[in-house]
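Per reviewer request, we include the raw input and output of the structure prediction for the construct analysed in the revised manuscript.
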Amino acid sequence: MKALAVLLLVPGGAFAQEFVPVAGSLDDEAFYRAVACAAAPGGRCRKPFLRWSDDRRRDLSVALASVTDTLEPWQRDLYERGLSNAVAQINALDAGIRLSRGDGAGDIEVHIVATPPGHVMRDTGVPDLDGALLSLGRVALRARDGEIREALIAVSAQARRREIASILLEEIVQSLGLMTDVRGPAYRRSLFSEDGNSVVRLEGQDAMALRRHYAPDPVDRTEPSAPTTDISTGPEPEES
């Protein structure tokens, strides 16, 4: 089961596309547009570009905001270490964004919930999460005019221990605005793979995408004059 589900709490629209299917390897431009705005190769964006503002991106706090009482101490240690690894991986890229660990409230809040995978979250104490379907992990972004204001991450306490670090890394990268996965055999070892939760390092095109997203002058807001490819993504997910 894939860890990713993204709920966009963006006034004025709903953006349901969760992955872009691809037949083979993409060049850097196509890969970036796929994960940043859900564009199929050669096609138009299907989501807005979202980023943290210039004045916040240099010191974003990431907090383990709540942990279900069902979590054993050894399990909590796995989530704590996974979160620290995710922060270290992102900071090591020198990508124009800097994260720090915090306690309690944070710009990016992580909630470990008792909800089993595939069930609807209830009684989490977080209104933006309650009532939403949880696969393994889920990101809720609140944004306006292309600027992310806050991010909430929920991860099931029943995630398999070998997947925890990968899930946390992916969800935090998603919370920085790279919201869409890719599906294809060439990307089975990508953090953005729709079909796996095993990557714990930011390398190759995964690292490139985050660096580009927070480059001083990213060239990504123009659209091609007409899409050359329009690949179906299958049924829409339940989020809105």
